[in-house]
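User: Can you help me understand a structure? I only have the sequence.
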Amino acid sequence: MQILIVTHYFPPENTIASLRPYSWAKYWTWAGHQVTVLTTQEPIAEQNLSLPLPDCEILRVFRPTILNRGRLSKKNIESVKSLTRWNKYKGYFVKKLIRFINYTGVGFFRAPSLDSKWPGLVRKSGLLDSGRFWDVCVCTFGEASVLKVGRDLKKKGQVGKLIFDFRDLWTENINFKGLFPFNVYEQLQEYRWCRLADVITTVSEPLARVLEKKHHKKVQIVLNGFDPEDRMNNKQVEKLDSSKINILYTGTIYRGFQNPSPLFEALKSLIEDDYPGISDLLITFAGKNTTEAEKLAEKYGVQSQVNCLGFLKRETILSLQECADILLFLDYNSENGDGILTGKLYEYMFSGTRIWTIGKVNRASRIIEENDLGEVYGNDVEKIKEALKVLLVEKHPGKFSLELLTEKLRHYTRGYQAQRMLDCLNQN
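Assistant: Let's start by predicting it. Here is the structure, written out as tokens:
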């Protein structure tokens, strides 16, 4: 088949959103399909993903910023690399500013944002000329503009089957609340565009129910998953302080939704009791928004036993996950958090390290418990306290075998889910 993937996020951009379309391109190419990826310019960042690009056609169109609205890339990647350093940094900082504003709850940049200019730039670039046809077009959200590109191609008769993939929800996203009246406009656009989709997919059953209720059509579930090859091929060797008992959290902490406070409160209680060996415990946070953990650690007076590393390369993160004694998973403290199955969940599952989950018990926590990969403590401080006591005695719990995990968790692998995505075409 001729398959077109439309995505804003693709390697080398170092984000969990890049890995979903990357795995499709990788495994569909291996299966003999002719794959084309339409994405944005390569990011300017020191921590880019070092994954080998799949042997497929990759088309990149410059993504507009506030300071550079109309610039287009040429028909190859080299044009992106030739952008001036000044323009690159302008785009980088503007992106950070917009993300900050969204995180603070003022989401008015979503609908009228410059991202809405991207489909027009795609048309002007001529990369998807009218003579081309794809049997399947997969548009993976986020960024609404990718859905608009798919809609335009469907209307022009350039694609056979159109798949809208919602890695996250758009207008019902609990992390990014839209601002009136822009959110009304977004809801209308989502409804109109999804009517043209032959298949709608998402990452969990609860999110599927939300989309089915809104769009009145069957929604297929395609999990995020994890690629065990990423660990097997990872040459990065990182260590935590071997003299300590290491609890590790990797990834973003979403303020207001994820909260390590119960762990800090339990730790504080043991410190106050002068519990034997408690000074040997170290809790490490690696990823975005670690300042939130730092503030909470200071609030509970446990900052001496909390270490924040900031944003790291994915290869480093995977290595640290393997050498930690316990991996900390913060489930969403939200009534709407049941459908959020982050990429970190699957990284943890294939790490070989036991997992502790804290927060409201949602689907993610239950997956860990059902597969006997760790313990679920909710927000119960006393249970966490008792678990810490046991950990201080055990010091270094045993590891799971990666080979056995891969066999046991086969349906959670990226390869399995890539095939699952194509199977959805026959189920609608």
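Now, to help you interpret it: The domain at 230-408 is CATH 3.40.50.2000 (Rossmann fold). The chain has two domains: 2-225+413-426, 230-408. Let me know which part you'd like to focus on.
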